[in-house]
Structures are given as structure tokens and as C-alpha cells.
Fold this protein.
Amino acid sequence: MLETVVQAVINGLLIGGIYALVSIGVTLIFGVVKIVNFAQGEFVMIGMYISFFLATQFGIDPIASLFVTMPVLFVIGVLVQHFLIRRVLGPNDMPQIFLTFALSLLLLNLALMLFTANYRTVHTSYSDAAIHVSGLYIPVAKLIAFVVAMVLSGLLWVFLHTTDLGKAMRAAAQNRDVATLMGINPNRVFCVALGIALALAGAAGSLLMPFYSAYPFVGQVFVLMAFVAVVLGTLGNVVGALIASLMMGIAESLGIQYVGADSGQIVVFAMLLLTLAFKPNGLGGGRVR
Amino acid sequence: MKKDRRQSVLGNQGHTNPLLSRRPSRRKFLLKATGAVVAGAFGAVPLRGWAADPVNIGALYPTTGSMAQIGVGCVAAAKLAVEMVNEAGGIKSLGGAKLNLIISDVQSDTTVTRTETDRLISGNKLSAIHGCFASALTLIASEVAERAKVPLITGSSSDQLNKGRTYTFTPFARASQFAQAQLQMSKLVSDKPKVAVIFENTAFGTSTSNGLKELAPAEGVEIVMFEPYSAGFTDASPLINKVKSSGANALFSVSYLNDLILIVRTVKQVGLDIAINGGSGGFVIPDFYKNVGKLAEGLQGVAHWNHDMDADAQKVNAEYQKRTGYFLFEYAGGLVAQTFMIADALERAASTDPQKVRQALSTLDVSSGYAAMAPGGKVKFGPDGKNVYGRPIGVQWQHGDLASVFPKEDARAPLLKT
């Protein structure tokens, strides 16, 4: 009995790490640039396809392909900010919403056209391996994904708190006008923020590849969870998004175990509504970190 | 598509180039076109010794869209089957008339299936049709064919195809028989099968799993877990955790491919010793093994046809494998047999008239040759168009190949207990 609970918590925690990578990206973009990126899931999908083709064409391990997907998506992020988002930043929100939404649909349908709807999987030596400890099991591929996700989140935190660029980013997030007055170039900061957010999405793609299939709609599966985590952990709050993602993973897993296998999302969204009812700004209490 | 059809109408004789290559040179095309026009011009003059008019057979398959992969495989098999009939001398009672396959792409879409079937029938003088792989498409094609009074023969398993139809023939096992076979297979794994049924919670999953639940008591199979899940989940671990705590020794998964891959992987990771039965359809095609790899080893399923059933099936499979690189899968193999059933009917009808062909199909009774290439080795249609001897075959992935393991009379390899 206890074993089942612990196993459910482990499962939830491990998948929560992946949710975290996606949601941190979304919350970072929202916190700094103040737009909601609906296309975040599609960038996870792009990361997965890059990893897939590197693995099948050149035999590069999906985890090692992090070093390709992250820089590539960073550059894409900078370009998206510089050529698209920068143009629609203004007092009106609607063009921003439609821009990222259109980007999402465009990428999704491009992928359908180029790669077809087929599922593509990569087999690695550790894809099906698991560590067994006293009746519990920990899948190796997910453990690696979780550890790397936590390391990347930690590095981001260090970057935001110790480097000048990181501090400038937080300053721009707190008050864009004052930050500009202090000599911070907002577009440069926004470019870096988009770049980092997309690089994290790319990392999520690479980390998913050893145990999940790539297909054009794959981003939609993860981005829904990411949005819930972002709201739950207070919009723009990186640490909040991380904690909320892990919580959601666990809630989903326990929900499937004890409520019903098609109720994972019911539990997650019930949790979201309850939290918002009592803490309308999310668990972070409205502070942007 | 158009070009494809034109090619199949005009120049199937001497068509020996590899399957699916559909770009003849312009010169070749002109040559064939001229030949066909000349043949047409002289066709009116009855010449002894001149080849008889070809018999048009329609083939409706989705060669584009989401089911394209299977559809393309079906077309390859359909061409192979027609070649086999023609090489054996064609339809002798019609003066050695050759079969002419007219292929139509139904694009994995129900609306297109309706218009394409209509177009195929009204634009050509057809003697019979076969198609369309997915039951949802076949149901529509069958409606159109019924109205036009052209016989349609299909491997699709929906029981609805046998209701209120007179021109539709189904030589293979029905959906209801599949569920029963799955339950019986679980008894091979254990004397006291405890089955966990997990199914995706939309129409496909719920209807299939309800069939299993209804039949289980009669088969003496205990269902210890019956659980719907939302398709497209991110993680199968919680679900498998639940299967583990249910104490089941057999797992029936009614799932789409992506979920099934996750489920199979997770079962291996947990180290759960459980026999998995993945059903039919997408589970019994070469693509499944390509996607899942070694993990597919030992997985069980059900099919209406398998390439190792008998010597004839093995022979056709060898030829198909030589051409495409893959083994002849369930649906494609079945339609080779169907082509020979049509040929048998044409032979006895001695006419290309679709109504006479329907009449001959309804009295078909074969127990040898390629037309009898079905589990059990016999085909005879009842008044509902159902093969009275039709039964499914239990299969298992063994060494990258699909082996027949159930029932005993059809088994070609022992069931591997994983």
C-alpha cells in the first residue's frame, strides 16, 4: 500500500520535471516580455524532431543532442523576438495573442506536412532500463531527464540572480520603463529571454526523446500542463512554476492511481481552480521572482 | 491519382516494373495509349485469337492521408494478386480475359470515399470492387456499391457490414469474433486468467472493451480491472502501477499506437510479468515492429489473416516481401485471397455483368487454392454475406515476425510465454 503511494509520487515527480522545463519557459517569457507564448509546445516538438533526426541519421544520443537543440532553439528564439514579437509589443494585447497562436498553428501544420502524422521513436540502451530499489522502480531515461531539468532550472536561477544580464532581465520584468531609464536595452533583454525560454523547450524535447514518441501534436500534450503550472505558480514566477510543475505531476499520478485512469487531468484542473479560489495570484502570492 | 488510374486502365498488360512506381516515360505512355486506341478501334470486330476484353475490378484504398501507409501496402498486394490471376491465364470462361485493376484513392476520408466510390462505379464498367481497409470507409463504399448493384468484397471487420446488404461479401472474421478470440487466448497464458482491460475513453476504445466485458463471463475469464484512460497521456507509469496492484496476469490494451508504445515500455521497466494482447489493426502491421522494436517480442494480437497460415499464403508472402521488403500483412494478404474469390466467381459466371458476378459470389464454395486462403481454409458465404467458416487467428510477435499461435488448428508456432 505504502509502496504504491511512494511509487505514484516518484512517477509524478519525474514527469513533473519535464513539465517544469516547458512551464519555466512560458513563465519567463511572460514575466519579462509580458506576452503569452502559445507556441511553446511546438518548440518542444521541434526539439524532439531535431533529436530524432540526429539520433537516426548520425547516431547521436538524444541526451547528447541537447548541445545542438538548445543553441538552435536559442537562435530561433532571438529571431522570433526580433522579427515578430518586437513588432507587436504595444498597448494592445490582441495582436500578441494572435501572433503566438498563429505561430503555433503554422509550426504544427508545417510539421504535419514535412514529417506526416507518424509516431517516431528512438531506442537507446537506457530507454527501457529501470533501477529497482526494494519493490520500487525508477526508469533511467526519466531519471536522467529529471536530473538534467533540475540542473538547467538551477543554472537559470543562478543566471538571473548573479549576472548583469540576468539582473537586467529581472529589472525589465519588474518595471520596463524604469529599467529603460536605467540604460537597459529592452529588446536585447527580450531577445535573450525568448532565446533562453525556447532553449529550455528544446532541452525538454531532447530529454523526452528517449522515452516518448515525436509527432506533430506532441507539444499540445505538454503545453496544457505548462500553462496550468504557470498560473498555479504565479505568472512570471520561475521558482513558482518549477514547484507547481512538480506538484502537478504528483497530483496527476495520484489521481490516476486512486480516482481513475482518465481523471488525471480532472485532479490537476480541480487543484488549479481551488488554488485560484483561495489565492487568486497563484501559490507565489503575486510576487515575481 | 488521375494518372495512376489512366495508367491502370490503359496499360496493365506487360506491367512488370516494380510496384508503386507510377511514372512511365512519355514515349512509353504514348505507345501504350496508341495501342489502346487501336485496340479499341478494332475491338468492335470480333477477331478469333485476339485477347478478350479485360475485366475491370475496382480497388478502393486510402493511399494518402492518415491511413496511407496501410493503403499503399494494400495497393501493392492488389496489383500482385491481379498479376497472379493474369499470369495463370486470366478468366478462361471469358476467353482468357485479363483482370484490369482500377485503383482509386479514398484519402482516409469518409466524404472522399463516397464521391470516389461513386466516380469509380459511374466512370467504369466494373464487375466487382474490393476495399477499403478501415471499417468506417468500407461502410460508406458498401452503401454506394449496394445502390449501384456492384458486388463489394472486403476484409473490414465491422459487423454492420452484414446487416441488410445483398452485394457486400465479408470472407473473414467479424469484430465480435475478435473479442472472443482474445479472451480465449488469455486462457493459453494461464488456467485462471485474470485480465486487466485498459482502453482509451473514446468510441473506439469503449465499444471494443465493452465487447470484451460482455463475453468474458461466458468464456470463464475474470476481468479484474476495467479502466478507461485519456488517449495521448504523457506518462503510462501511474496506469501500469494500477495494473500491477490489480494482480492481473494478462493485459488487454485497446489503444492507439503511441499510447501502446508507452504502455509496453512501462510494463518492461516495471518488470511486470504480464501477457499483453494489443488486438488487431495497427498492431499487426510491420510498422508496429519498426516503431516498438524488440519490445514487441512476445506481444499477442488477433488478425483475420496471417502470412504463415498455409503454403499458398507463404508463397504469396515470399513474392510480396521480395517486392516491398515487408511481410504481407493481414489486410493486404486478405485482399489477395479476395481477388481470387472474384476470379472464381467470374469463371463460373462466364460474364462480366456485376449482377451475375454477385450471384456467383453468393454460391462460392472453395476449400483449396488461393481463393480459400483464409483461417480454416474454407470460404462459403451465408445469406448475410458472411463467410460461414470465418474465424480470427491469434498471433504473436516472434523474432520480428508475426507468428500464428491460436487456435490450435491454425497455430504454426507455439505461444511464447514471456
Notes: The CA atoms of residues 73 and 199 of chain A lie 5 Å apart. Chain A is about 75% helix and 5% strand. The mean pLDDT of chain A is 89. Chain A touches chain B through 41 residues (CB under 8 Å).
